[in-house]
Structure formats: structure tokens, C-alpha cells
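Need C-alpha cells for this chain, all 285 residues.
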Amino acid sequence: MTALFALATSLLWGLADFGGGLLTRRVPALTVVVVSQAIAAAALAVVVLATGGWSEADPRLWFAVGAGLVGPLGLMCFYKALALGPMGVVSPLSTLAVAVPIGVGLVLGERPGLTQVAGIAVAVVGVVLAGGPQLRGAPVQRQAIVLTLVAALCFGAVLALIAAASTTVTGLFLALFVQRVTNVVAGGAALYATARRGAVVLPADGFPWTALPALAFVGLADVAANGSYAIAARLGPVTVAAVLASLYPVVTALAARGFLSERLRAVQAVGAGLALIGTLLLATG
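Here are the C-alpha cells for all 285 residues:
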């Protein structure tokens, strides 16, 4: 069950990243983040009210607040790093986020078996290669590397924090709601500051109302991914759940291949294959 929920996390995150990537071709990235997370927060508010999640409020919710603060910071650093480029370096490097929850699991006493250790190693290499690492070209700006590493640290921290934010399903709904509200507040403040500086926060023709369904999908897929990861981390070893949940770049690459007819580079195809082998080792270990 750990493998099932963790793989569902990868699928949801991969599709959310694919959808978000398409939307940012029309709408500024920070606006996509804030609007999609606001829609997710509204949907979660209904779920929390319907399930009585408010009764699960306890000090663990501070973990959800922390996840809500570092998440937008990670996204802003990641998008800035992508702007500095090259994407073929930034994207694979961001997958180092998996080191944070793995480290937490090891500190808490988890000791994966030899098969699982092999699966972790193979899967992580596969994920990095699936991002299509750029091995030649102009030197990468140091700022891009630093921003990517900060983004990876933030993304990994979100995984660790949201897994610690609740112990029950209804408590998880409340934790995800608190995380999303914090996301919107932090992201909204950044969006306001961006607008005050005179930067573009909306397309020239105004708010893209026709993109609302896509924005809703991105937000809801992201929150569902957080939820499925929290369940995976609770059911089984965090070291296994974190690695399987980090396979989302493979999903994004395959979605681009299927929907946009983008060709997979040889290194990406090899990476996808290694990720699959690593997944099988983890699931059977």
C-alpha cells in the first residue's frame, strides 16, 4: 500500500507540473500558483466542514503552516532558477529534494533492506536522468545552482512536514487546508509585492477565466498528491515512500511526449527505464 500511494503521488504531481507548465506559457507562474492553491483551499474547506476536521486541531498543525511557508519559497526559487537556466541542469538537480525525507527517515531509525537500498539508488539516478540533464554547453550561473538547491531543500521539507502534520485522515484534511491557506497568504503577499514593483502578474487581456478548469486541476492534483504522500509515509518506510513519490519528473516527461508529441531524449528514456526498475525493487523489497 505504501508503494501504491507513493506512486499515486508521483502521478498526481507529474500531471500537476505538466498542467502548471502549460499554464505558465499564458499566465505568470506566481499567479498560477496563488490561484490554483486558492481553489484547492476552497475545496478543502468544504471537505473539512463536511468531515468535522476542525475537531482534529492540535499543535501538529504548525508543521502544516511550515509546509505552507516553505512551499511557495521553493517554487519561487525554482522558477527563478529555470529563468536563469539551463532547464536541463535545473530540473534534474531539483530532484535532490528526496534527500530530505530520506534523511528524516534514517534519523528516525528506518533501515531499508539491501534490495530497497539498491532500488533507492537506481530510482534516484533514473529520476535525475529522466529530467534530461544537460551535460554540455555554456557554464551554469552559480546563482541558478544555489536557487535550485534552495528549492530542492524547500520541496523536501514540504514532504517531511506534511507527513508529520497529522495522524488521522480527517486531521490530514485539516492539515492540507491549513497548508493551502498559508500557501495562498504567502504567495499572495509575494504576488502583491511583485505587482507593486511593476512586474506583470496577469496576461495583457486580463484574467484568463477560460483557464479556471485547468487551474483547478493543478491545485486539486497538487493537494491530492500531498495527501497521498502523507498516507504513504504513514503506512510504510518514509525512505521508500519518498523515493517513489519523487518519480513525478518521469510522469511529466511522458505526459509531454503523449500530449505535446515532444520527443524523449535518449538520456530521458534511459532514466525512465531505470526509474521503473528502481520502483520494482522498492515495491518487492
